[in-house]
Amino acid sequence: MPYKIRTRDDHFLNDGSPKRILALDGGGLRGILTLSYLAKIESVLGQRHGEGENFRLSHYFDLIAGTSTGAIIAAALASGMSVTEIAKKYLELGQRVFQKSWLRDGFVRAFYDEAGLIEELKQVYGAHTTLGDPSLQTGLLVVTKRLDSGSPWPISNNPRGKYYGPRPNSDVIPNSAYPLWQVVRSSTAAPRYFDPERIEISRGKVGEIPVQGEFVDGGVSPFNNPALQAVMYATLDGYRIGWPTGADNLLVVSIGTGSRDPKIAPARLAADNALKSLLSLMDDCATLMETLLQWLSSSQTARMIDRELDDLRHDLIAPAPLITYLRYNVALTKATLAEIGMEFEDGKIEGLSAMDDPLNMKTLHEIGVNAAKQQVRDEDFPSNFDLVG
Q1: What is the mean pLDDT of each run of 10 residues along the chain (389 residues)?
Q2: How far apart, in whole angstroms, are the C-alpha atoms of residue 56 and residue 60?
Q3: 27, 39, 70, 302: which could join 311 in a potential S-S bond, CB 3.0 to 4.6 Å?
Q4: DSSP secondary structure string for all residues of 244-260
């Protein structure tokens, strides 16, 4: 079916047409698993639209949101790259950036030197590409956390956004002028793994020192899964997009990085109750995000939240679903992995949950391919969201 390739501004239009959101979780190098799902989705949608290898997810999705490693992938997708291209660069990034050093312990100094990550991001997006650059072919939303003010920051290339462009008599630097690599790097600055990213957000008046915000990984906010933040960004008045809700109007596709087995604690955290508590809190946030999204939606992929709630099939927060919601992820547990034909010992299962081990990437990719083959179906994507001329 022929369709018109749209610009960023076309994607952001509030013209009554159905809109599509893609949301990508954080999870360190487990993002390679996300890319396996994306490859399957790109293939399914490409065949449906008769484009095959020429199809790009930036053609289909009107807003692509990402947190942490999801932000790396989201920005590359919004730039018009194919999933195959991104996966190649992602594998190279993982091998080059995540090199352990005995001089870095994660307490006095971050585990990894951000200089290598910065160089890789500049190569992928361009050193001088800004958030407002026309090379971004669709909507992009990056979730980061401003540590010095304690607030989550959803940063977007939405041209109608309050802080997107310059404002009269203001020293504030518009979001459109932020370097794209720096916005993505701010969302990936996981505490202990990388030092915070400082972005100049105001030039300051004459004689004053410019104001820099200190940003860390968006996974430190409730939005390591950015799907709910993306829905709010697309629909709440303050964000100035204003897309209508309704199951026929708004499709949300959310992809995880594999959820860890909470019964298997990483050996290096055995005596670190603070970090175990943080991981537990992140797990709770992830479950809350899925519960809320299933509560809002009509979903072909709804999972059982727990044995008491089940999958919320008979629960709705409103008289009718506010979104159509698809969630793809796989639990990194022995039982779930066996269901997709992969057998692992407990020690290997524990290792797969690590966010910073390049040696896991091949296995995680295979897990993603097998899981996507089983989970992603053409019929998941309602035909009313198909692209038209």
Answers
A1: 88 96 96 98 96 93 97 98 96 83 48 86 96 97 95 96 91 95 94 88 80 92 96 98 97 96 61 68 91 95 93 90 98 94 87 88 96 97 93
A2: 7
A3: 302
A4: --STTTEEEEEE-S-B-
- Contact between residue 221 and residue 150 where contact means Cβ atoms under 8 Å apart: no
**CA 11 distance to own-chain centroid:** 19
Structure tokens at 379: 């019929």
Closest CA to 86 of 114, 108, 64, 102: 64
The CA distance from 41 to 36, in Å, is 9
- Amino acid identity for residue 117 in this structure: L
The SS3 of residue 306 is strand
DSSP conformational letter for 135: T
Q: What's the full length of the chain, in residues?
A: 389
Matching residue, tokens 């479950």: 287
What tens digit of pLDDT does each residue of 342-370 get? 998 878 888 898 888 899 999 999 999 99
